């Protein structure tokens, strides 16, 4: 059961470490951890030291919160996120968002690695998420006492902030970066999709598919926290020419796209 006391204790621990009123929270996805190299005067808190925080289990998610300056703003970066497929529940997955909000963030930036269902999008491209489909079979707001944290029935007519999305589109044009726009479908995983499932996702209107992000975005909306999210497309999900999954290749493609993602996020932060 989630309590206000847990969130306050986590935030108090971080404030005592030097996390001083961050303005922007950032959640980093698979293969996108190097944004933290751009943080000035970093203060690091490993998840296993923060009261009530879940622990990261995936080998390529390192599990720490990093506070510092970037683009002239105070930021707190979540390096390593939590997933349903690791055995966490929705409250675990979204707990860090609530803690960052308690610390004072006013905006949230999210990144992830995803598969391209829309075959006009290619491996290594980036996609600005303009809407999503929740296929994870639950909600981070479906628990007793959720109304202590905000309105139970949260409007999701525009879950991604149109102002930040507009700025990011303009920055991508200026930087000569291909930035598609599309719908992200979030599934449980960890298995990847069958050919029939990719056809279903396409018919549903999904442009990309992944195993994260949507719970965090739902909670950001619950907290009235403007959010912007970008997917790095690491594979092409063509059901008629489907190749076996190659996880090292997926990680490598995310890492190759990373400098463009870092440049976009850094300049976005400067503009906010």
Automatic annotation (TrEMBL):
The UniProt keywords, alphabetically, are: Glycosyltransferase, Transferase
Segments crossing the lipid bilayer: none
Give residue ranges for domain Nucleoside phosphorylase.
24-270
Its BP terms in the Gene Ontology are: nucleoside metabolic process
Tell me which Pfam families the record gives: PNP_UDP_1 (PF01048)
Pathway(s) the chain acts in: Purine metabolism; purine nucleoside salvage
Enzyme class, broadest EC rank: transferase
**Highest rank taxon of the organism:** Bacteria
Molecular function in Gene Ontology: purine-nucleoside phosphorylase activity
User: Cross-referenced CDD domains, in alphabetical order?
Assistant: PNP-EcPNPII_like (cd09009)
Q: What is its EC number?
A: 2.4.2.1
> Which InterPro entries did the record assign?
Nucleoside_phosphorylase_d (IPR000845), Nucleoside_phosphorylase_sf (IPR035994), Pur_Nuc_Pase_Ino/Guo-sp (IPR011270), Purine_phosphorylase (IPR011268)
Q: Name one GO cellular component term.
A: cytoplasm
Does the entry feature the keyword Phosphoprotein, yes or no? Answer: no
What does the function comment of this entry state? The purine nucleoside phosphorylases catalyze the phosphorolytic breakdown of the N-glycosidic bond in the beta-(deoxy)ribonucleoside molecules, with the formation of the corresponding free purine bases and pentose-1-phosphate.
In which family does this protein belong, per the annotation? Answer: Belongs to the PNP/MTAP phosphorylase family.
Protein name per the record: Purine nucleoside phosphorylase
What is the source species? Nonlabens spongiae
